[in-house]
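User: Continuing from earlier, I have the next pair ready.

Assistant: Great, send them over.

User: Here they are, in order.

Assistant: Folding the first of the pair now:
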Amino acid sequence: MEHSFAAAAAALLLTGAIVTGFFALEDYFSQKEKTVSEETAVSASKEEQQEAVLGIFEGKLALFVGKSPYPNVIYDFFVRNLPKEDFERLSEGILVSSESELESLLEDFMS
């Protein structure tokens, strides 16, 4: 019974983390789509474009948007137990280009 409760709680946390990430990036990606569609008429400058990066903040998985040193989303997942290669990738920051890529990365790291 305890294992099924723990598994259900973990699944709920993972689902919540993914949903939170989607809300955090919804505006970012809608703006990005607008920018891409407007580029046919006017070229957008690189300063106006914001990048989404999955990384580490205070030992937890975090999503950074733009150049801010503070994340937009901090996931309730400590990265200390990840394999060395994953930890190093996150330390450098992983560029996220879509919501589906974010979902895939979160599932990989949090499972």
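And the other member of the pair:
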Amino acid sequence: MVIRKNKSGYKVYKTKSGEIKSVHQRVAEKKIGGPVRKGYEVHHRDGNKINNRPGNLSVIKRSTHKTIHAKKKK
């Protein structure tokens, strides 16, 4: 498996079917034991897009995620 960074700075990989997937999404799905539900996103707690350790990732509501990042921009 080849891992590279996408334009946004996230690590991604290509599946056997040719689909591009985010590493942090896959790690979070392994951690929670299934897919991330609709309306939820994976958040990097330390803000480092390439730190995909399970302990650094949390699955939170999209609205909460947007609020967290809006506060960081101020």
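Worth noting for the second one:
The CA atoms of residues 35 and 66 lie 20 Å apart. DSSP finds two helices and five strands in the chain.
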